[in-house]
Amino acid sequence: MTSLEILDATVCCTPTASPMSTSDAERLAATFKALGDPTRLKLLSIIASSEGQEACVCDLTEPVGLAQPTVSHHLKVLTEAGFVSRSKRGTWAYYRLAPEALRAATGALRDNLLVHDAS
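Predicted structure:
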């Protein structure tokens, strides 16, 4: 018998921490799916760099070069994912960045996917 045959496969493959649950993985994947589009990232960047981290939808169409209905769709996805909040003022919708949602998403990655140094 060789030394390789003696090794117990369960010892080398046992996780050292609890893996992410399926429901947590599905929820996090949906969150990052909202960020997985260049237009949505650009919209978040524009909103984040606007005064008060808020922008009117009327100011968001031209910078991304898309029609208002398409921009509104992307903003709806970002709103549903919690990355922006929406308020209506007269005929215009204003979008405000939700930095806590970005922190939560990055925190979930840090807490669930980063390898922790055992030393």
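Summary: The chain is about 55% helix and 15% strand.
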